[in-house]
Write a structure and sequence with these properties.
The complex is a heterodimer of chains A (169) and B (139). With 169 residues, chain A is mostly helical. Helix content of chain A is 75%, strand content 0%. In chain A, helix 4 runs antiparallel to helix 7. With 139 residues, chain B is mainly α. Helix content of chain B is 80%, strand content 0%. Chain B contains 5 helices and no strands. The chains are: A mainly alpha (169), B mainly alpha (139). Chains A and B meet through helix 1, helix 2, helix 4, helix 5 and helix 7 of A and helix 2 and helix 4 of B.
């Protein structure tokens, strides 16, 4: 397979890999490194592309595993990033600024979710995957996905409302 | 009424029983500017998802033709190995020849030394011969 062919295969979903990596690793640089790593791995074994039902699903699974491994080793090395003190809500801020802010809050709220919920929310609400695809990726049954997704959505809504009412004061 | 439907969808959404199409509808609804007060708080969520989907991976990929490299790498390694064996052998032969030469030279020097000693002794014998000759001549 030539470089251009490979890029054609990879192009449609490389952003998805990056977004999933960023959702899990939070830092932009780390997500970029992870994405690059995954794409290079794909490139090195691009001969057996035909073997996989969907290269995208395969790549997404690789990304997920890679990032979770990263997180695990990071935790083991006591290098966990903490994003907890951002609740600086000024009641006098204009409503417009506030609205824009609260969009960003959602991202920060998502950072606090457990990894499983984060991934499912990302795959469903951002990437619009159906339950079967998510189930294949995360090795989960549709019912379990539904429960986790519901929990994640409710948590985001609750935390958003807390911030919202606090912000308006 | 539309509002009614949206509220129902929201409820379903939180239970995670909405279809992808329904979720699209919700995202579209919440992307509009003016929303009823009690629904306003949901807007950031759906807007965030739309924004998040816009994020792009922009880093360039340092793609090289790896398979190609591996092939040539093995050929190069092979060539180096063959050259190594060839020149190594030549070098070894040269060393061996040098060693044999020096050994032969040593042996020959030893031989020459002993020859010289022999000649010296023979020269001494000549003395005897001379004396004999002198006696011979006198008679």
């Amino acid at each position: 397979m030539k470089q251009s062919e490979f890029l054609n295969v990879v192009m449609p979903f490389k952003d998805k890999l990056y977004r999933l990596a960023k959702r899990l690793l939070v830092s932009r640089e780390e997500a970029e490194d992870a994405t690059q790593e995954i794409l290079m791995k794909l490139w090195s074994k691009n001969e057996d592309f035909e073997k996989y039902k969907s290269v995208e699903a395969f790549a997404m699974t690789m990304t997920k595993n890679f990032c979770l491994d990263r997180l695990k080793s990071k935790q083991a090395g006591n290098l966990k990033l903490v994003h907890s003190n951002y609740g600086n809500d000024d009641a006098s801020l204009q409503k417009q600024v506030e609205a824009k802010d609260s969009v960003n809050w959602v991202g920060k709220i998502m950072e606090e979710l457990p990894e499983q919920q984060r991934m499912i929310l990302q795959l469903r609400d951002v990437e619009e995957y159906d339950f079967d695809e998510i189930g294949e990726l995360l090795n989960m049954k549709p019912t379990a996905i539904r429960v986790t997704l519901s929990r994640a959505r409710k948590t985001v809504r609750e935390k958003l409302m807390q911030k919202h009412s606090y912000g308006i004061g | 009424m539309e509002l009614d439907r949206i509220e129902k969808l929201l409820e379903k959404y939180l239970e995670a029983t909405t279809s992808i199409a329904e979720e699209k509808e919700l995202r579209a609804y919440f992307s509009q500017e003016s929303l009823p007060q009690h629904l306003e708080q949901y807007a950031p969520m759906f807007r965030y998802f739309s924004v998040a989907k816009e994020e792009r991976y922009t880093k360039k990929l340092p793609l090289k033709n790896r398979r190609f490299n591996y092939k040539w790498l093995s050929i190069a390694a092979m060539a180096v190995l063959l050259f190594g064996i060839y020149f190594g052998k030549q070098y070894q032969e040269k060393k061996e020849a040098e060693y044999a030469y020096s050994e032969t030279k040593k042996a020959l020097t030893l031989l020459a030394d002993n020859f010289n000693k022999g000649t010296e002794k023979v020269a001494y014998l000549n003395e005897f011969e001379n004396a004999k000759q002198k006696i011979y001549n006198k008679n």
